[in-house]
Amino acid sequence: MNFTISFLSTPAVLLGIVAFVGLVAQKKTGTEVLTGTFKTIIGFMVFSAGGSLMTGALQNFNKLFQTGFNIVGVVASPEAATAMAQTEYALVTSCTLILGFIMNLVFARITPMKNIFFTTGHSLFFACVLSLIIKSFGISDIMAILLGGIILGFCSAALPQLCQPFMRKITGSDETAIGHFNMIGYALSGHIGKLFSKYEDKSTEDINFPKWLSFFRDFLMGVAVIMLGLFYLSALKAGRDVTQELAGTTHWLVFPMVQAFTFTAGMSILMTGVRMFLAEI
Q1: Cβ(53)–Cβ(265) below 8 Å
Q2: Of 18, 127, 237, 251, which has the most beta carbons under 10 Å away?
Q3: Is residue 199 included in any domain, yes or no?
Q4: Are 51 and 266 in contact (CB under 8 A)?
């Protein structure tokens, strides 16, 4: 009994079972079923490893920032929330993701909101954020999964409707919708944009930016540069003694660079894991 509970309580295994059932239902070959199941489990573990790296770097940043500026810092990043959720509430997050997709199908079936959310990376981020928020109120795991899954499923079906008038204008049909959870902001931007309809032939793509800014087109490069700035700013403000205590045997001026690149590496690993297991489920 303890083996069964432990086995099914492991998020990577739970998602592996989902992938296994799906692949069998698709009548895949034995090799494809085995490969897909294992890739899902491995991908989720890679994802968790990336989250752990990011969490460790963020904890050091938090100490430097709070000491240096004497205020509580907040990292407004879905990747940071994902890392924290996978460290603290891995089972709740994975179950919320699975139930959320099921509820998305239910809402699309019984309501006029006929949208199926296939941007699963964003669904995972939202499941992590929901898990963190709901669990912060001390709610039990089962209730957190049920509540989070229902919210995730409803938002997956409902939010694309807000942007559909703009998608219809761009694509000429209702076959495709935007799969993102910032659609309230996108829809608001669309309505604001209508006030400037006389400029609709102009585009930001026409703006010529300096070539030295082109490296920001690479997501990881942008993250690395920003984190370098934040870590060095916090370390210099916190002072040599505080930073050296965190750095251990590493020189205190090298420590911020290492942590910034560790955070970026963790994000790269996390994204690789996400792509790996989502491709199978």
Answers
A1: yes
A2: 127
A3: no
A4: yes
Tally of domains in the chain = 1
> Which residues, including other chains, have CB under 8 Å from residue 213's CB and lie 6 or more apart?
none
CA distance linking residue 156 with residue 179, whole number of Å? 8
| Cα atoms in the Cβ-side hemisphere of radius 13 Å centred on 7 | 6
Helix spans in 70-203 (H): 78-88, 90-110, 120-135, 141-158, 160-171, 183-193
Q: Which residues contact 10 (CB under 8 A, 6 or more apart)?
A: 91
Tens digits of residue pLDDT in 78-103: 666 777 777 788 888 888 988 998 99
Q: Which residue has the tokens 């989902």?
A: 18
Parent domain of 249: 2-194+211-278
pTM value > 0.70: no
Per the domain annotation, does 201 fall within a domain?
A: no
CA 41/CA 35 separation, integer angstroms: 10
Is residue 204 included in any domain, yes or no?
no
pLDDT digit string, tens, across residues 177-215: 888 888 899 899 888 988 887 777 777 666 676 777 776
